[in-house]
């Protein structure tokens, strides 16, 4: 059963507001109100993202963070590129900035 995107958006926004309120009035590290609001927010987001995809073929640029995501890169902090996406352009820059420049007269 598909959810109406506008209704899913309203539920998502309400969940964001409830999460904010729970976080702002948090009573300790494992406050059940915050944990519950977090889960409701994650569920509302997934429902909104799915409704958006079903209705319009679009998705948000957001994702749900899980504890499993912590294990993905234990070698260091994530800097925005995965190893296979990273290319070292410094070597090309040195060649371009080097001998091919002519002195001014």
UniProtKB/TrEMBL annotation:
It comes from the Bacteria. Residues 60-105 are annotated as: Disordered. Residues 66-98 have a biased composition (Acidic residues). This is Primosomal protein. It comes from Arsenicicoccus cauae.
